[in-house]
Structures are given as C-alpha cells and as structure tokens.
Amino acid sequence: MAIMQVSNLTKKFGGVTANKNVSFEVKENQIVGIIGPNGAGKTTCFNSICGFTKKTEGQVLFGDKDISNLVHFQIAGLGICRTFQHTTIFPEFTVMENILAGMYLKAETGIFSTIFKYGKIVKQEQKLEEAAHKIIKMVRLTGKENSIAKNLAYGQQRKLAIGIALATSPKVLMLDEPAAGLNATESKELVELIRDVSKTGITVVLVEHDMKVVMSVCDNIIVLNYGEKMAEGTPAEIRKNEKVIEVYLGTETD
Amino acid sequence: MVKNKKISNIILLAIIVLLPLVIRGSYSRGILILWAIYAILALSLNLIVGYMGLLSFGHAGFFGIGAYTSALVCLNLGFSFWPALLLTLIVVGVVGLGVGYFSIRLHGVYFAISTMAFSEIVRLIMTNWMSVTRGPMGLNDIPRPAFFGFNFSSELSYFYLVVAIAAVLYFIVHIIISSPLGRSFKSIRENQELSHSIGIDVAKTKVLAFTVSAMIAGVAGSLYAHYYTVIAPEVSGLFYSTVGLIMVIVGGKGTLLGPVIGAFIFTILPEALRATNQLQMIVFSLVLILTVIFLPNGLMSILKLSWGKQSRNKMVGR
Known about the structure:
By secondary structure, chain A is an alpha/beta fold. Chain A has helices spanning 42-50, 72-78, 95-102, 111-116, 118-138, 154-167, 184-199, 211-217, 235-240, 242-249, and strands at residues 2-13, 16-27, 31-35, 57-62, 65-66, 80-82, 172-176, 203-207, 220-225, 228-233. Helices cover 75% and strands 1% of the residues of chain B.
C-alpha cells in the first residue's frame, strides 16, 4: 500500500524549473532513495513534499490525506519528519535534551496545564526520558546523554539529527543526504541504523550521493535528472538502466 | 542537583526577606523596592531575550501600560489594587498578543525596531491623550495597595509585597522554562528551522512567550505606579526597555537568577558608588562595560563555574 503519493510535482524558481512533473509512490515500510546528479532537484523535491517551500503545481497524498497545501510543522504533526543536508541539532542542548525536544508533539505544552498541572508534566517528563533512552540507544549514542551536542564529533551529530527526527515518532522519515561528510565506517553504521529504523516499521525516504549507501539500503530508487524523473526501480534495475549509467553512474561506479 | 538548587533558592529568598532588617531608612528601602520591581521587569524580558532569542526594545510599552491601566482604574473607577492588577494583566496580555501577532514575523533587528516603535507610540498616546492620562502632568495620588484592611503604606511592607509577587512570578517562569513548553522556546532560540521540522508552530509559540512576557512586565509597571504613587508618560520611555535589557545581559541571559542579579547590580551598585562622588556614573559604566567584555554570559557565568560542570549542563538546558 502506498503511504505517500507524489503526483505531477512541479516547482519553479522564477524562470528556472527545479522540478517538472515528478510523480512517484512510496510504499509503506519501504526504503526509497532519490538520486541524481548535482542540481537535479532532489532537495527541492524534498522541500516541496515537507512543506518547506510552496510547490508550483502538483499534489502530495499522505495515506489518503492531501497534504499539498500544508506547511512544515503541520506536516510534521501528521508524521512526516525530515533531516537537513547540513547538520541540524540544538547545539547548546545535551544529547538527552535534543531528543526530548524532538518529542515536542507528544508532550503536553499548553500554557495553562504547564502552570497549573506541573506535577503531571514532571511525571510525563520521566516517561519521555525513558523513551528517549531507547532512541539514543538506537542511534548509538548511549553514554553520551549528558554531553553538549555541539561538542560531539561530526558523525555523532549527524546521528543525533536522525535521533531528533525519530523522536517525533514519524511514520515517514525523510533524510536529506544523511551520509554527507561521513567516512567509510560511519557510512556503514548509517546503513545499519537506517535498516534498524526500517525494522521498527518506519518508512524511509532518502536523498543521497553516496551510491554505496543507496544501493545497499534502498528497496526502490528514483532517479532525477534536470528536475524530471528519469527512471525508477530496484537497485539492480537502476544499475542496469543504460540511461542512468549514461548521465550519472557511468563514470562513478565500476 | 535539583534538590541543591531548591535549597539554594530558598536560602536566597531568605536572604532577600531578611535584607530590610539590615538596610534601614526609607530611602534605602526604597532602593530595595526598586530592585525587586526591576527584577520582575528583567524576568519578563529574559523570558523572550534569554530563552527565545528575541530582542525586544518595547517592554517599556508594557511596563507603562501596566502602570497607567492599574493607576487609572484605581483613580477613576474606584478599583482597589488587586482587581486593578487582574485587569492590568488582561489589558497588557491583549496588547501583548496584538503586538506579538504583528511583529513576530519580523526577524532580529527588525523585530527590535518594531517593538521600539510600539513603546514610543504608547508613550506618545500617554503624552497626548490629555482627557484620560492628563498628558505630561501624569497621574498622582495613586493609592497604595491594601490587603484585608492592611495597608502597604510603609516601605517595609511594600517591599515584602513586591518580593512575594516577584517570587510567584519567578516560580511560574521556572515552571515554564523547565517544562516541554519552555524547551520549545529554547529550541526556537537554538535552531528555528529544526524547530519547524519537529512540529513546533514557531510563530504561535513566539507570540505566546511574548504575551506572557508582556503580562509580567505589566505587573512590574503596576507595582511601580502604586509604589511611587506618581507616574508620567516617561514610564514608557526607551529608558525602561534599555534598563531591562542591560539587567538581563549583565546578570546572565537565559538563566533564572541572572535578571535578579542584574537588577541588583543596576539598582544597588550606583548607590554603593556614591562614595566616589562625581565618578559614580563613570565607575558604574566601567563595571557594565567590563562585565559585558569579560563575562559575555553575564555574572551568572561566575556562579555557574563555581557550581561545577554538572550544574552547568543542567543550567543550559533546563
């Protein structure tokens, strides 16, 4: 069953068409990769789906709900959470607080209940902390709970960013170049992490340049070129697709 | 750690309560009252400057509206202090909501300018709406509060009244910032884009914080009016906004105790420096400049160092 359906997505920046009639489907609990050369419109496509930029045309269905005209925080509320290309964490928070911050939607945040039912908030906080420990374990940061996030190593910060996204309990996790800047070992760990996430029933969509990551983890791959969808298929199919090899993979893979 | 903090808060409150026993004389006690009022103003500014990273130059506007609303309903409608305070909260809250709604979409310095413009508008209205505010002549004979027949007319009793209200507000701010709601304030300060993506309605949250902050500033204004019993449109002048900011920054923004310490420095230090005669203001300015240069996180950073690393971690996030 399709959990997300993108149809005829078009995004124009003035005269530049960044995405043109992009359509694809994401099946529940799949790991879907979006690849393409630089400037192919991958991140734009991501931003449009998540409501960070307004799409020019097209429709995005989440389940059977039309989310085309919602803005980012509303979309996050429905269960689609994203990470960013650059590392995005709350730098002055500890690791634990970063994760807890990600649980905003699960917590009681009304001003009146905060002031008048503080006891309940404290109890709720304990429960959230328990859940946060599980997420910290999943993103392999156990033992770092009280470290200030900005002092973590780069690779750990990237994992933390994924952790924050996971803390929102998303149905769909959208990762924008999660492997950017990671070394070989870290990329390997990332692949394991993405698989673990997928095992918990979360659908993953990722934009990625690192072919090793994409090919080893994805069930389905969408190739964009000059803003248009050029091909779609399993990693094996994409490897054999001549058009894709010509514009993209030809020089990069063996 | 949490327990230690609770104890140190209680000790601090005890010291404050005992202060007037050492400091006598109505002038000196008047300074203590001003300190407590300024502490409330700084507490309100800190909520959005320190915890949310919004620079407001307009809190004198709320301070002034608080002072005038409370004074006017007492003088013209025969309200007593407490219902007047409640009405002040509502009026300032509504104004804060309105100002917040329209200015919050502006960023950084543009937001600061729009809030500054707001407080100037308030000041001009107070100056020119003669029939209600009596213009530059201001209002006088504002009654001192009473409580079940007890009149807060002495300096000592008024000091305890202000400290009690300040302590309640301090506790409310403490509750807010240590809750998930407060964490969302800090999240917005730390990273607005990420806050959006985890589902925080950033604009709504900012307006909420701004409104709460405005209401607290209004309480400070009301207490100011009923203490001095005379107010003029200058209560909404830029002076009070700037004073508030200085106290927050010198004390330590984004910490609970910082504004209280900042207010202390700002009100008590000039008095202590009277011994230096004409050099008073020069020495005072030097102290402020040196603090900002060498302690960019305010005087609280000294305390934090002495409390050790663990408490520092707690302080930053909670």
